[in-house]
Amino acid sequence: MSALLTVRGLVKEYPARSRSRDKAPLRAVNGIDLDVERGQTLAIVGESGSGKSTTGRAILRLIEATAGTIMFDGIDIRRLPTRELRALRSRMQIVFQDNGAALDPRWSVGRLLAEPLRRHEQLTRREQSRRIADMLDRVGLDPRHTTRYPHEFSGGQRQRIGIARALMVHPELVVCDEPVSALDVSVQAQVLNLMKDLQDEFGLTYLFISHDLSVVEFMADSVAVMSRGNLVESGPCSDIMTKPQHSYTRALLAAVPVPDPSVYADRAARRALIRSGIEHL
Amino acid sequence: MVAILGVEDLRVRVASDHGTSYPVNGVSFELHRGETLGVVGESGSGKSLTALSIIRLLPTRALSISGGHIHLDGVDMGTLPERDMRAIRGRRIGTIFQEPMTALNPAFTIGFQIAEPLRRHLNLTRRQASSRASELLDMVGVHRAQSVAHSYPHHLSGGMRQRAMIAMAMSCKPDILIADEPTTALDVTTQTQILDLMLDLQADHGTAILLVTHDLGVVAQACSRVIVMRRGEVVEHAGVAELFRAPQHPYTRALLDSMPARNTGRQRIIVPDEGVLGA
């Protein structure tokens, strides 16, 4: 196996909000290392403000990192000139949580899916239509619905459109930022299944950003736990879930709501575990 | 056991250009003193509308209660004038919603907003109410309660705002607390602390809690009984242990089966056929 993505010492700072110039900037991401193997899923898990989304966006250079190196298939992304970066974007795509906001409401589905193709590939109109119809079919939508607009679809269907759009240009790496967090549990299950199927079919590598440990446990091969900009712990998914080393990871695992009332028999022990994990940060 | 709240064949009607439909269609349940009853369902199941009907705060004029009875401690609330309902809301029935930022008024301090029901319902003086507000913030685990009482909602984190909401909802020691997705917007570590807080207060005050949620994990964590709703109807009604051990209705089974937590280690989540879920 080879790493498709290697991140070393990634830092993202924002200037302090305060007017006093000497105040230290806010470190949203504080020098983290990540390795993502080709064809695998690395999940970044953390609570709000942990820096997980910032990390995902910095990797795609949707925001500029302050320091660190990001190597994608041997290419140093941070040093890439804009022009080459743009070309590389066909190999790295992103799926957002709220596709209601990410999809332009005035664009039909056909146009939304055609746009990445126009940008990255020279196709005839006919080839383009065929690719779009194929992809819609592949993500479980009706290929005839290209003339419809995003608002005509349900939340789960919009998420399928977002995935279809990301996959139009056959990327290798897909950053998925809370892709199922806004969905009902039954719809969520369908979208997660779809994402796994597509991963197998296209050999996709996922950077899967989520706050939901049960979703992460289902999806991920390896896990990186973040808190307040720091990488708390990382390793194979099963190790993190069954043998967490860091007290914060233990707190996070204990706090996950589980569909099993017997887990909650010993409330006091659970509380103590969560409290100590949060305090030790 | 005595039911503090009885809902009987509740119907909510929505009239639109496309005709009439019933997002809540014949819902019945009882809430007993000191218990936590979970109302669980997916979006569109009618769980929130059921909760809002109880305090007669349906969000738009297009929605109306078109049938059924709601009894509070034996009194049929349907016959009460709006004036009496105002005396019930906040006094006998406290409410917490998902997003405290929209439920709290951004223009007033936290302390003022907690004091308001105390002055209105319990006739405390301004000074009494404000010192009671600080005590209440302290009770819900807010450090430096005095200074938080003087802050505005946007100064606080989501978890702190939700604690403030709970302080406000519990301020008049209500018989019933209606909590509509109270922890959905919160991080899991905060969520579990807020649920624990609600259960602690319940143990101290004997409050009955109606907990509306989409999350079966939250139900397992906090409820003693549960009703499962789907398309405006109650499809299953059970004790929490039974519900998770032996769900009776195909829809409940489907909901449980589609949770990622129950599919760990599998290649795919067993998604039940669409007929059952009606996605």
Give the secondary structure arrangement, pairings included.
The complex is a heterodimer of chains A (281) and B (279).
Chain A: E1 3-14, E2 26-37, E3 41-46, H1 52-59, E4 67-72, E5 75-76, H2 82-88, E6 92-95, H3 99-102, H4 109-120, H5 125-138, H6 155-167, E7 173-177, H7 185-202, E8 205-210, H8 213-219, E9 222-227, E10 230-236, H9 237-242, H10 247-255, H11 267-279
Parallel strand pairs in A: 3-8, 3-9, 6-7, 7-8
Antiparallel strand pairs in A: 1-2, 1-4, 4-5, 9-10
Helix pairs in contact in A: 4-6, 6-7, 10-11
Chain B: E1 3-16, E2 19-32, E3 36-40, H1 47-54, E4 63-72, E5 75-76, H2 82-88, E6 93-96, H3 100-103, H4 110-122, H5 126-139, H6 145-149, H7 158-170, E7 176-180, H8 188-205, E8 208-213, H9 216-222, E9 225-230, E10 233-239, H10 240-245, H11 250-257, H12 274-277
Parallel strand pairs in B: 3-8, 3-9, 6-7, 7-8
Antiparallel strand pairs in B: 1-2, 1-4, 4-5, 9-10
Helix pairs in contact in B: 4-5, 4-7, 5-7, 7-8
Protein name (chain B): ABC transporter domain-containing protein
Main location (chain B): membrane
Organism (chain B): Candidatus Lumbricidiphila eiseniae
